[in-house]
Amino acid sequence: MPSKPSISRQAIIIIHGIGEQRPMDTLRDFATSVAPENQDPNKPAFFSKPDQFSDSYELRRLTANRQRKSYKTDYFELYWAHLMLDTKISDVLWWTWNVFVRFPGQVPKRLRWIYYLFWAIVLATISCLIFIQNFGSSLIPVWWKNVITVGWFKAVSSFIVTLASILINGLLLNYLGDAVRYFAPRPGNIAQRQQIRGTGISLLRRLHEQKDAIGNNLYDRVVIVGHSLGSIIAYDILSLYWNEISPKLQVDPLAIDEAEQAVANFNSTKINLEQFRSAQFKFWLSQYKNSDSWRVSDILTVGSPLAFAHFHIARNVDEFSLKKRQREFPTCPPVMERPTAAALKKLKNANKKDWFSFPATDDPAVPRNLHHAAVFAMTRWTNMYFGNDFVGGEIACLGSGVENKKLRSARYGWFPFISHTHYWDKKEKESLRYLVEKLQLIFHFDDQEIEA
Predict the structure, then answer these.
(1) Whole-structure pTM value
(2) Considering the domain boundaries, does residue 200 fall inside one?
(3) Which domain holds residue 307?
(4) pLDDT for residue 429 is more than 90
(5) Model confidence over 228-254: pLDDT tens digits?
(6) Are 312 and 233 in contact (CB under 8 A)?
């Protein structure tokens, strides 16, 4: 097992989901819920300090008071709501067409009831309109005809229709519209997608590059938490920044060998998920203190639409599968590849045939690089979702190395979707306890061994 990590300071990044979010609201709520209790009641739980890593003057970083039960931790928010404006009703209609005008078999099973409900409402509405057009007039009582011609009734009806239209348009454009535009790489959305991703990558880059007063890495560890659409943004910036930094990593070839063997064993079901995650963390530990290192030890996705990634970010399952094989969509564990027959003949270890590093050699003197989609070789992925939150679900389509946790909402288990914004609600004790456990604000040890 790996030795105890020496974490002097860590950064937690929270990425909010859809809607008219206000800067810092999500961050304050999240940090207040997950941080260990302050031992000194006379001091504030957090210091609100300037966020020198962000380009927005609306944002601050929250630094938790030094506590016995955590490392020194800074909480950051990747705020992007202001970058997704001017959504049009045509954007929503385009998305509705692409989502619902397809065969039922192409819709994920978890969402199929929504698909059927949508078409039931559409058909029922059309049937009612046809019926009213042909038979309605003769069935309406005379007294009701007299009522609906009264001025006050027309005014009230008009007000209700207008209010309903405003509410529906606001819900569609300001909430669903965010997801619609981020999912779709249409020409009108490219600039916003680029800005959002660029902002996230800039934050990750600055956290990695910042040094302390004596030249050491300021942050030893970074954890990303993405909620709802924020989880897809987290996945994107993690993948894109890995592309940038992976060629610079200084990784011991022997550590790469161990990690590749662990992935190969996991893919052949020789080891379980817990052992695989332990191997990921051990690989991360082998390099996190280097000047050029990968600091993101964990990503947590919460209520994530990535559960239906093949539905949202690809045209169909076949295209999604192809892009995973081509390493356009990183998977957990990473896609392995087999070198040429000539390269295999040069290996001393004849049993090693699958790699996520190059060049394909087992000579420890030869520097090796990890391929551009191997981010989950050393970053653990945890996904959590409420059973009645149909925005998210189990993320199985991006690899069996994702730890999925289905939870039951204690407060909002009675109606679909309502629980979606309450994962770190202090009254959701099971969800909050699991989230804190996986954040690992400090690592627990038994006989100097890490509990994976």
Answers:
(1) 0.88
(2) yes
(3) 10-85+187-250+287-335+373-450
(4) yes
(5) 999 999 999 999 999 999 999 989 988
(6) no
